[in-house]
Amino acid sequence: MPGVNDTMTVNGVSIDDGFAEAFPMAGTAIQITAINEKWALEAARSMTGFATSVIACGCEGGIDKVLTPAETRDGRPGVRVLFFSFDAGGLEKQVTTRLGQCILTSPTSACYADFDSETKIDLGSAIRYFADGWQISKKFEGRHFWRMPVMEGEFLCEAETGVTTDGVGGGNLLLMARTTAQALAASEAAIEAMRKVPDVIMPFPGGIVRSGSKVGGKYKGMMASTNDAYCPTLKGVTKSELTPEIGSVLEIVIDGLSARAVADAMRVGIKAVTDLGPEEGALRIGAGNYGGNLGPHHFHLKDLLP
Amino acid sequence: MTGLTFRKREEPAERLDLSPLTPSRLAGMAERDIAALAVGTSRMGLRVGDVFDVAMGDAAAIRFEGGSDRFDRIGEAMDGGEITVAGDAGVRLGRMLAGGRISVSGSVGAHAGSAMSGGVIAISGNAGERLGGPLAGEMMGMKGGTITVGGNAGVRAGDRMRRGVIFVTGAAGEDLASRMIAGTIVVGGRAAATPGRLMKRGTLVLCSGAERFAPTFLDNGPADLLILKIMADAFAKGEVGEVPFHGAPMRRLGGDTAVLGLGEVFLPL
Question: From the record, what ranges are coiled-coil (chain B) (predicted)?
């Protein structure tokens, strides 16, 4: 078993003595509201589509939580959405492009800032010219909004939102199981619990990655390639991190507005997986890292045990 | 520490210029020096000590006990702190106010909040003409901040207003928001004559309607807009306070098309 250090066992699930290595990212939060939850989710899902990995998508985005009317700025159903990118400039470009194509266009939608900070990125200020001179600026009580006449009525959008450079991208859990069905069951249990943690997103489809990657690859120009050490079909032909009984591995990647939020999400994810146990779920929990030399945030699994 | 208090002895025989009595100008001054400040506007040469009993206190919180419609230019160009007037005030209250808060329990004269850029003016009574407006020759009136009037506003409130919020609980005099450049004005009562005449941009919410409009205002029909609810909620939680609209649909007029035509007036349906 090369490289495996499963020093802890909780409810029959072994947990590696390893750590997730994560990186600083610029992050922001916005609130999308609509006439009902269905249309708020339609807008949010559209906006966070193709936002799984910053490497190829330009940003990572996802739904933090569904908001009740009492939690939104305009008293309608809403969704809190988070986005992360390498820097504030890249984040603004991604968020405003998606805002213009996915929120402005979505019936009954409105968009508000949902993160306070001194540093801001544009929201409505970046897309107001779509209104072709009919845009209306409203400033009151310390807030700035843009109103844009559209065919459906009027699109209301806050001018800016706050951005943090204390965001963290790349927190992760590797869930290793006998079968794909068991790996998926463990992952789904973890995701269900982690979605209750505020200020985090799991940006991949359904929150789960089946094709975890390593940095670089044998082919020129590849920024990332398959994580062969965790591919069960390559056991024996590569320097595998998997024991013989592991037949499938799924990964959960976590981005958060703070390191604490990422740690909290990993903690509840580990608990959900260990609560499920090895018969229905994962045999083993690990975490991906690059030796600790690339990312400043190290989330040690032993510090996150239930 | 209590505030610095100016207690009126008797009604002054002339109009007074009280612009020297702001928190930043009085900070650190001795009582004798304050009493010696000139506030008269005639050859009588009245000084603070001739008109007021001065009770020293924190200059950041100035209080006038006993107001007068001859108390002009209170809080002029103030940039912080607080002034409270128990009674009436004269003209140009809070003109060019940049920050802080001025509260008046009575009524005020013309040009209150003229060309102010920030801060809050809260008038419990009525406001005179050209509330927030510019003086003759100036290009812009109010440029920011908040004015609330518990009673009525005189003619041409919000003249050449550029930014900020005015809320008049009662009625507005003739030609509210004349030549308005931008900003928001809410009037609980009826607006006299032709509100918004020559307004370029800006928002008027006339909760009890208006006497009439210039023919260059065009009816956009009923409008169910989120901004009305967002504004009402924000005002209720902020300096403006509760306003008489709550986000329900209102009739929208666009104008004044005699000029830029990007302003709007909201009326009850």
Answer: none
